Amino acid sequence: MINYHVKKKRSTRYTYRFVGASIALLCSSQVIMFFMGYGRSYKIGTMIAFVFTLYGLYLFFNSFRAGAYDIDYEFRDEDFVVHTKWGDRTYSYGDVDDISHVIPENEFLYSLIHISVKRKDYVLPFSYKKEVADKIYTYINDRVISQKLDDMEKEESEQK
């Protein structure tokens, strides 16, 4: 069993909330003034302000998603568990659609593991931890491949 913790900064969440709320309030004031008939109202400018209002709301509400908080990954023999602030999700290795290991040119700085499960995507960043990333990737990849092969063998035996 391997455990890995991805730490997220609190200040980043608060920055997204502040910027999103500021953009939404500022641009929505333009839209409200347009509908009330005050000042010089330009339709194109108001449409752009409406789009920016939606973008500000997107930034604000997106700062509350589960990926914005600390995430703990627990990789076990048969399945893996993703512990987030909003609950735990358990996936079997057969549910994994894609797994990839991203290694940049300067591999000593960082590397990433991307796990795609059903409709969720999980990215595990590793800063200055190439050995840990390689260990976790091989652990997950071996189990995913063995699970997929077992599923294929079961399907072939059922067809006969």
Q: What would you say this structure looks like, in words?
A:
The protein is α+β, with helices and mostly antiparallel strands and 160 residues long. 48% of the residues lie in helices and 28% in strands. The chain has helices spanning 10-36, 43-62, 130-159; strands at residues 2-6, 71-75, 79-84, 87-92, 96-102, 110-117, 120-127. The strands form two sheets. It has a four-stranded antiparallel beta sheet with strand order 1-2-3-4, covered by helices on one side. Strands 5-6-7 form a three-stranded antiparallel beta sheet, with helices on one face. Helix 1 runs antiparallel to helix 2 (43-62). The protein is elongated and about 75 Å long. The model has no long low-confidence stretch (mean pLDDT 89).
Largest sheet: 4 strands, antiparallel
Sequence of strands across the biggest β-sheet: 1-2-3-4
Instruction: Assign the structural class, choosing from mainly alpha, mainly beta, alpha/beta, alpha+beta, or little secondary structure.
Output: alpha+beta
Residue-averaged pLDDT: 89
Overall 3D form: elongated
- Determine Rg (CA atoms, Å): 23 Å
Number of strands: 7
Q: Helical percent range? A: 40-55%
Tell me the span between the first and last alpha carbons: 36 Å
Low-confidence stretches: none
- β-strand percent reads 25-35%
Tell me the number of helical segments per DSSP (H or I, 4 or more residues long).
3
Spell the H/E element sequence. EHHEEEEEEH
Helices, strands, pairings?
Blueprint: E1 2-6, H1 10-36, H2 43-62, E2 71-75, E3 79-84, E4 87-92, E5 96-102, E6 110-117, E7 120-127, H3 130-159
Antiparallel strand pairs: 1-2, 2-3, 3-4, 5-6, 6-7
Helix pairs in contact: 1-2
